[in-house]
Amino acid sequence: xxxxxxxxDDGRAFLRVSTAVAPTTGLDARRALAFNWExxxxxxAIGDLDGVPYLQLCENRPLETxxxxxxxxxxxxxxxxxxxxxxxxxxxxxLL
Length: 96
Description:
33% helix; 4-stranded antiparallel sheet; 96 residues; single chain; alpha+beta
């Protein structure tokens, strides 16, 4: 799990919660885009992990609206969904 602070174009601060799911090698981009369309929480993106492009499950929330309980809930939700996706994509093996 990764937690980072990012800013939008207006300088508004956001918390990004993300987790690496799988290397992008051999992944079908259509499946990732379909997930993004259907997902109520989180979105898929590609980010580097030690120089390797990885599919990442992410969620951004405005910092001004977050409290500790909401951050914990986000970490558990994004972590759980990311773990399930990793198992499906790796045939139950741990990719990380």
